[in-house]
Amino acid sequence: MIEIFNTVLYYPLFNLLIWLYNILGQDIGLAIIGLTVLTKLVLYPLSLQAIKAQKSLSTLQPKIEELKVKYKDQKEVMSKELMKLYQENKINPLSSCLPILIQLPILIAVYQVFMKGLGSEGLENLYPFVTNPGHINAVFLGFLDLSKANIVLAILAGLAQFWQAKMMPMAKPTVKTPGSKDEGMASMMNKQMLYFMPLITVVIGASLPGGLTLYWFLTTILTIAQQYFYFRKGKESVGVEAVK
C-alpha cells in the first residue's frame, strides 16, 4: 500500500517539485508556487463541482427545512423526500466533500516531500530525466526558511480559510417552528466551523514545515479566486435574465 502511494503520488510530486526547483532559479518557494498552481489546475473540475454543490445546497436549504418540519415524525419518509429533492435538482450532497478527500492524500504526499524528500538521501528518488541539484536550498526569497515552522504563514493560512468559508452562502432558517430545531443546530454548527477550522489550521500549521503551510495557503487563495469568479459569473447571469 505504501509503495502504491509512493508510486502514484509521492514520487511524481517530488520529482515535479525538483524539476520546478531546477528551472525556477533553484528557489524552493517559487517551486512550491508552481507545484500549487499545477495541482490546482488538475483538480479544477472537482473543485468547481464542489463549489457548485455547496451553492446549490444553500439554495435548496429552505426546501430542505420545510421537508424536515413536514416529516419531523417520519424519518424514513423524510429521507426519501430529501433524496428525491436532490435527484430532481441533480445534486449530490457528497460531491462538496470529494475534492477535500482527494486533496488529503496529495497534502500527505507534499508533507512527506518536505519531511524526508528534501535531504540529500531523498534526491535518490529522482527520475532519470530530472536533474539532481545535489542540495536543496530551503530558503525562499533569501530570508524565509521553508524547512522550519512559520507562525506567520500559519496565520495567513488560517485567515485565508476563514475568508474562503465566509464567501460561501449560508442559508438562514425561514421556518420558525419547533420542528426546525435541527436546522437551528445545523446553523450553529456551521458558524462554529467557520471560526473553529481556521483556528485549527493555525495551530496545526504552526507545527508543520513552512513549505507545506505555504502550499496550503496558496491552495486556499486559488480556491477563493475560483469561488469569486464563479459567484460573480452567477450574479451576472441573474442580472442578464432580469433585464430580459
TrEMBL record:
The lineage of its organism: Bacteria, Candidatus Falkowiibacteriota. Belongs to the OXA1/ALB3/YidC family. It is found in: Cell membrane; Membrane. PANTHER family: CYTOCHROME C OXIDASE ASSEMBLY PROTEIN COX18, MITOCHONDRIAL, OXA1. GO terms for cellular component: plasma membrane. GO terms for biological process: protein insertion into membrane; protein transport. It comes from Candidatus Falkowbacteria bacterium RIFOXYA2_FULL_38_12. It comes from the Bacteria. This is Membrane insertase YidC/Oxa/ALB C-terminal domain-containing protein.
